[in-house]
Write a structure and sequence with these properties.
Pfam families: GvpL_GvpF
Helix content: 25-40%
Distance between the termini: 15 Å
InterPro entries: GvpL/GvpF
Family: Belongs to the gas vesicle GvpF/GvpL family.
Order of helices and strands: EEEHEEHEHEEHE
Structural class: alpha+beta
Keywords: Gas vesicle
CATH class of the largest domain: Alpha Beta
CATH topology of the largest domain: Alpha-Beta Plaits
Protein name: Gas vesicle protein
């Protein structure tokens, strides 16, 4: 039994296997698959997931990889070869798309669902006023997002709306060539001065653009 970690190009360096795991590189015509032999099904704990993530980060420090969803298991090398035969073309295409690129993430405020607390002696907001305010905030957010995509367009080959992880915050990720990351960040930061709150983080490994690796 093997747990899959990541897919890389066929010429990936075997030395990318980390010291703290028994990671192995399985080479095929167009891709290399990094996997760890196991005797038991991996525990789906926070500790194990974080350890898995650290291995992915280390692999990426050597060369572009597509992370495989945590807990993906194949019984043996025959099953792995069958999986590669089915997915090799898609994996190769996605590796080409992310090679030499990183992602930056812009964090944007979401429109509030709640009515603001009134100041002392201030009348409570009516239902109609709340709906008008809410509609105006949604329009502002839509405009903000559209403007942000336009700012990123000269630099990003792809953008993606990421799942919400913090209350009141939206995230837009952009896939940017490494040599343009700082320029793209500066453009976003300059644009953000026109808005009440928006921040940019990264560069990060472009794992948000590796969906094709789910098996």
């Amino acid at each position: 039994m093997m747990m899959l970690y990541a897919v890389a190009a066929a010429d990936a360096d075997h030395a990318a296997a980390t010291d703290d795991t028994s990671l192995q590189a399985h080479r095929y015509d167009d891709v290399t698959v990094f996997a760890e032999p196991l005797t038991d099904t991996p525990e789906r704990s926070t500790r194990e997931v974080l350890a898995f993530g650290r291995v992915l980060q280390q692999l990426w420090s050597h060369h572009p990889v597509l992370p495989v969803r945590f807990g993906t298991i194949v019984s043996d090398e025959t099953e792995l070869a069958q999986l590669v035969a089915e997915r090799e073309s898609a994996w190769t295409e996605r590796l080409t798309a992310v090679a030499g690129r990183s992602e930056i993430i812009v964090h944007l405020p979401l429109p509030s669902d709640a009515a603001p607390d009134p100041e002392p002696d201030e009348p409570v907001e009516s239902g109609a006023a709340y709906l008008r305010r809410r509609a105006a905030e949604v329009r502002r957010h839509d405009l903000e997002t559209a403007e942000l995509k336009a700012v990123l367009a000269p630099y990003a080959s792809e953008t993606a709306v990421l799942p919400q992880v913090r209350t009141g915050e939206a995230r837009l990720s952009a896939l940017v060539p490494d040599e343009l990351v700082e320029t793209a960040r500066a453009a976003v930061e300059k644009w953000a001065t026109n808005w009440s709150w928006a921040t940019v983080t990264g560069p990060w490994p472009p794992f948000s653009f590796c969906q094709e690796t789910e098996a």
